[in-house]
Amino acid sequence: MESADREKSPGSTREAAAPVQLLTPDGRRVEHPEYSIDVSPEELRGLYRDMVLARRVDAEGVTLQRQGELALWPSLLGQEAAQVGSARAVLDGDHVFPSYRDHGVALCRGVDPLALLAMFRGVSNGGWDPEDHGFHLYTLVIGSQTLHATGYAMGMAKDGAHGAAVVYFGDGATSQGDVSEAFNFAAVYDAPVVFFCQNNQWAISEPTEKQSRVPLYRRADGFGLPGVRVDGNDVLACLAVTRAAMQRARCGQGPTLVEAFTYRMGAHTTSDDPTRYRDSAEVAHWAAKDPIARLRTHLLDTAHADQAFLDEVDHTADQAGQRLRALVRSMPAPDPHAIFDHVYADGHSLVDEERAQFARYEASFAETGGN
Ligand SMILES: Cc1ncc(C[n+]2csc(CCOP(=O)(O)OP(=O)(O)O)c2C)c(N)n1
Ligand SMILES: [Mg+2]
After folding, report:
1. Is residue 18's pLDDT more than 80?
2. Cα(204) to centroid(ligand 2), Å
3. Structural domain tally of the chain?
4. Mean pLDDT lowest for which of 11-25, 219-233, 317-331?
């Protein structure tokens, strides 16, 4: 087993600056010369509520999959601060391009978590209308959404829109050519886009040191855009850094790469067993940096919240979980033929052929009495 803090190993060529931090793992508020932020007690409580709700929805996703109600679920456990902090820097008029585990971002943008669960149940073809919340569709083709976001941002700039785009991707995605192309396009065209990389240390079973010889935020140097590493388990730092980057983008000062240094506490997806490739000591090391626990400690230490508030948040999250569970379990199965609808706006002979073929296949069960 390698050291839990792998990037600090002696002789490594991957030395990195200390990540931007505003809240220490033991819940102490610290200042940063470049990223000061004024957050009211009410906003702090809101961030806490968002993170607890995100964790609860996520836990429902895992459990429902285990009970056979969902086909798959990619857990965000451990990444609540990176997602909520960055998402709360998004304003109306901005556009978010997510990956596939960004449920916390979806919640903050106002997407009903039921839509996320429906997609992973396989009863919807994609989810939601991106126009409703400026929240585009989940992307499973690793890294491709960085190009979508960059192109969209270039379009926004051409239209004279005042918003910016933010795109979420992982450490593994940085090895995709698409991501390098997006960095380059964004840099040379000064596109109003923020690249928000959640470095959760793993790309399925592949550790980050197999993705890059340099810390990921330093990739930005070669493309001529600023890169910054932020403590991804510190919701305040993620908010401050993303807010600054989005503001830069909105003001026509171009793109930024933000690397949120965090950890995937759970399995890659419910199809994965991480005990096959990583040590429990590493997971324990990161559990001590839990993003929700540190904000809870801070809230209690500063008397910005009391136990009654924490209990109410837990109760609300439980109720949300129960609502989701009941609604997911009662979702009707879609008509299997619906999969052929909407492939093209107009009809297409190939789709018609496939539809007919599927109808024959289905009819064959009736003839043989099989199932
Ligand atoms: C283009 C492409 N190649 C491979 C895959 C298979 N795949 C799915 S998730 C994943 C790992 C991605 O890791 P990372 O970018 O770190 O994101 P994380 O899952 O950790 O959030 C891979 C290789 C894919 N979906 N798309
Ligand atoms: Mg990863």
Report:
1. yes
2. 7
3. 2
4. 11-25
* Confidence at 16, pLDDT banded by 50, 70, 90: confident
The SS3 call for residue 92 is strand
Neighbours of 361 (CB within 10 A): 10
Residues marked active site are found at 264, 268, 277
Q: Range of 116's domain? A: 3-330
Mutational test site, ligand 1, from 99, 141, 142, max ligand atoms within 8 Å of CB: 142
Q: Do 20 and 158 fall into the same domain?
A: yes
At residue 208, the 3 state secondary structure works out as: helix
Among the bound ligands, name the one nearest to the CA of residue 101: 1
Mean pLDDT of all residues in 337-362: 92
Return d(Cα 329, Cα 36) in angstroms, integer.
45
Same domain, 289 and 355: no
In the block, residue with structure tokens 């809240």:
23
Shared domain for 281 and 196, answered yes or no, is yes
Paired tokens of 317? 């999250």
Q: What is the pLDDT of residue 14?
A: 56
- CB distance 82 to ligand 1 below 6 Å: no
Same structural domain, 135 and 271: yes
Specify the ligand 1 atom closest to the Cα of 174. Answer: 15
Assigned token pair, 43:
């906003």
What's the CA-to-centroid distance between 335 and ligand 2, angstroms? 35
Task: For residues 66 and 130, state if they share a domain.
Answer: yes
Check whether residue 206 and residue 341 sit in a common domain. Answer: no
- Which ligand is closest to the CA of 205, given by its number? 1
Model pTM above 0.85: yes
Does residue 256 share a domain with residue 227?
yes
